[in-house]
């Protein structure tokens, strides 16, 4: 087979000087100045050339991709449906049809009657390369549905309103939306937020049905470019919540659902570094906050005096309180104790004594499911582990019993006894114990001979739970172990765990990942060069950092929509996310220390002449989060700089965004491609 010519992106002189340092960036031209429109023919030609190269090199492995895809597809129940849930006078559920890429939304009357199709995603998606349903909100009286769709991956949604009695669409159409939708109490209108030209939601607006959206009332406008505005409602639906904040500070206002034009209640003015969220029970605010401790606490205050905070449940050294939800007869506190999910029921007459729900395994992921009614007495709970498929329970709050409603069905068969899972702790270079969740075949020999797949994220305080994956079975059944490194930068062990992996401590995230890999090698789970690694978005930044620092460890690298051009992005205030990201990474425009730190680890800026492992890089042309040019520039610089002959592939989805292709089977095929790349590069029999 004659291999195609490796794509080469042209270089063009481009320099800029910041804080006395001059940076050369000869691939800067790959950013189309007209973005988010990308029409530059030379840029498009380069991306298409890379895509053609990707297809050519993957062509011999297409039979393997097809086998993996069919394996993965066979593990999915094609006519999958959700467990029905009651909300008011209706029972709601979703269902896929056999062969369907997208779901249908259904309901039927509690009192009896025929099934009613609320929304037909397959019909809406027909003929579209990309389709995604965003907000979905049925009116309080059940007569109307407001929903939002994105048909190109840009995350700019359009609101539509449907009359559920007739099935007709109302004339109310609102493009450019980026938020949830909350109906007013009388269903005469709803609240939402528009994205501004920088793709930032800086507002909350009220739309009255039948009126021109241009006349919608802006209830709140945020002037700080780093903050984002959201709309939601309290559990009792008495209050509409308009919240604003960045990654470290928040501020909440309550608007009466009966009269959103009334003067709002400001719960507490913003204080830098203080976050809080709010629910209500009667005339009392339940405020979940990190004001005194990064493990968070729960305070209450009268709605009439929202600033008078009284501690109800204080912070704990081992229990990280992640959320509080109020119901009529009790409230629920969710969190993690030493990294493991906990759900506790608290009675209003004895609020400090929580009844924890007992789960059957030592390592798992669990949490509240869909519980829409304020008077709920039976709670819907979701549960899974690395060996236990997704399970839906009902928890009776009166008796404390768990009833299994549904266990994820795997049509091709699944035997949990073929696998084992453990929770390890590996010591990082600074002495910190980093948790690792690992699953492996029951006959796995710990002699260093087997391959291992290592995944992590490590940013924004986003924890990666030890959950179940049917796609992962294709690796386990070929002899792999699969590990999740719960590294700093996520909040797996509490908010301080997050703080210890951001800003000036950002390199802890990269070091933790490398040290976990070396620890797994030392424990003979695998060996150097036999580790496949993967991360997406900020996890792709992690991939870029560790291939620069420790390239010899990795046998294959998957970097999906990778945030690798960190320095340039954090200095470009015109990009959608940049101002809101400065609390996470630092502001290199105004802070010389932040500039130097980001410059020291930014993957694109630190590519150097050395051998690199095989790389599979992906991007999305319409991605507003990690713009397409980040993976494109990174791939171009790697090609021009690296000293090895290892495979480097760049695949750009020309009609999709941050999440890759839409549709459940298209996303499966992309997973199959990545798995095939890993097997190919590690020499594992397919």
TrEMBL record:
InterPro entries: AB_hydrolase_fold, Pept_S9A_N, Peptidase_S9_cat, Peptidase_S9A, Serine_Peptidase_S9A. Residues 7-407 form the Peptidase S9A N-terminal domain. One of its GO terms (molecular function) is serine-type endopeptidase activity. Keywords: Hydrolase, Protease, Serine protease. One of its GO terms (biological process) is proteolysis. Residues 468-683 form the Peptidase S9 prolyl oligopeptidase catalytic domain. Its EC number is 3.4.21.83. SUPFAM superfamilies: alpha/beta-Hydrolases, Peptidase/esterase 'gauge' domain. Belongs to the peptidase S9A family. It comes from the Bacteria. This is Protease 2.
């Amino acid at each position: 087979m004659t291999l195609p010519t490796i794509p080469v992106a042209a270089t063009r002189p481009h320099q800029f000087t910041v804080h006395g340092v001059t940076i050369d960036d000869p691939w800067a031209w790959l950013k189309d100045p007209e973005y988010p429109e990308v029409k530059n023919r030379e840029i498009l030609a380069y991306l298409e050339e890379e895509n053609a190269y990707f297809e050519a090199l993957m062509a011999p492995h297409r039979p393997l991709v097809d086998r993996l895809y069919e394996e993965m597809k066979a593990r999915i129940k094609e006519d999958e449906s959700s467990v029905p849930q009651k909300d008011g006078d209706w029972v709601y559920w979703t269902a896929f049809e056999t062969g369907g890429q997208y779901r249908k939304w259904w309901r039927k009357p509690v009192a009896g009657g025929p099934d009613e199709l609320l929304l037909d995603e397959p019909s809406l998606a027909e003929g579209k390369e990309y389709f995604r349903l965003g907000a979905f909100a049925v009116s309080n009286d059940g007569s109307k549905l407001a929903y939002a769709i994105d048909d190109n991956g840009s995350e700019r949604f359009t609101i539509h309103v449907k009359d559920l009695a007739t099935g007709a669409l109302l004339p109310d159409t609102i493009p450019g939306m980026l938020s949830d939708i909350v109906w007013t109490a009388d269903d005469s209108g709803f609240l939402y937020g528009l994205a501004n030209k920088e793709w930032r939601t800086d507002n909350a607006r009220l739309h009255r049905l039948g009126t021109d959206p241009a006349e919608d009332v802006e209830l709140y406008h945020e002037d700080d470019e780093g903050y984002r505005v959201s709309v939601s409602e309290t559990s009792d639906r008495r209050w509409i919540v308009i919240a604003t904040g960045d990654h470290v500070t928040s501020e909440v206002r309550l608007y009466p659902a009966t009269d959103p034009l009334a003067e709002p209640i400001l719960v507490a003015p913003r204080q830098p570094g203080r976050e809080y969220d709010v629910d209500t029970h009667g005339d009392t605010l339940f405020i979940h906050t990190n004001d005194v401790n990064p493990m968070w606490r729960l305070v209450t205050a009268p709605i009439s005096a929202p600033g008078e905070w009284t501690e109800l449940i204080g912070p704990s050294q081992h229990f990280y309180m992640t959320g509080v939800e109020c119901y009529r007869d009790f409230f629920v506190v969710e969190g993690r104790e030493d990294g493991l999910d906990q759900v506790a029921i608290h009675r209003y007459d004895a609020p400090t004594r929580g009844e924890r729900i007992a789960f059957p395994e030592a390592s798992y992921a669990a949490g509240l499911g869909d519980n829409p009614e304020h008077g709920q007495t039976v709670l819907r709970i979701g549960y899974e582990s690395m060996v236990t498929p997704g399970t839906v329970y009902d928890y009776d709050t009166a008796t404390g019993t768990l009833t299994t409603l549904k266990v994820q069905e795997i049509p091709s068969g699944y035997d949990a006894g073929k696998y084992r899972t453990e929770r390890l702790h590996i010591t990082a270079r600074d002495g910190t114990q980093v948790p690792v969740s690992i699953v492996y075949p029951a006959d796995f020999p710990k002699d260093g001979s087997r391959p291992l797949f290592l995944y992590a994220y490590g940013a924004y305080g986003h924890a990666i739970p030890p959950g179940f994956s049917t796609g992962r079975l294709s690796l386990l059944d070929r002899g792999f172990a699969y590990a999740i490194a719960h590294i700093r930068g996520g909040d797996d062990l509490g908010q301080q765990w997050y703080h210890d992996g951001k800003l000036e401590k950002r390199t802890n995230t990269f070091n933790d990942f490398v040290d976990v890999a070396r620890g797994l090698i030392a424990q003979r789970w695998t060996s150097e060069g036999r580790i496949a690694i993967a991360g997406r978005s900020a996890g792709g930044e992690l991939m870029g950092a560790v291939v620069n620092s420790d390239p010899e460890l990795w046998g294959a690298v998957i970097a999906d929509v990778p945030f690798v051009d960190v320095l340039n992005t954090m200095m470009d205030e015109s990009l959608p996310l940049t101002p809101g990201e400065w609390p996470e990474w630092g502001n290199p425009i105004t802070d010389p220390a932040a500039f130097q730190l980001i410059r020291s680890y930014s993957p694109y800026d630190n590519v150097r002449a050395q051998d690199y492992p095989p790389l599979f890089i992906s991007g999305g042309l319409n991605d507003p989060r990690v713009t397409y040019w980040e993976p494109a520039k990174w791939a171009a610089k790697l090609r021009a700089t690296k000293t090895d002959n290892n495979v480097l592939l760049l695949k750009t989805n020309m009609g999709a965004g941050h999440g890759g292709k839409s549709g459940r089977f298209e996303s499966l095929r992309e997973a199959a491609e990545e798995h095939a790349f890993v097997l190919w590069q590690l020499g594992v029999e397919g």
